[in-house]
Amino acid sequence: MVPPAGPEAPAHFTVDGLEVLRPAPAPVVYGLVLERFGNYVVVFDADRDQVPVFTVSGRWVGEAATADADAIGDLIDAYEEGSLR
Question: Is this structure's pTM higher than 0.70?
């Protein structure tokens, strides 16, 4: 620990190493299906009619009104043409 520079300054800690005692439990997501369409990822949720679409790098594309393949394709086409950016 490095002592604070003054009464209002915070103390600073230096970490030399970390030890993982046990892995954190991974959350289980029920009702979600991720499907890849080329460079795009579509998230199907059993509780929603809308279908979020992202690029594989995580960039938001938009939300298709339905899980219909035509609606998803139209959204991706509009994104690639630049009308959604």
Answer: no
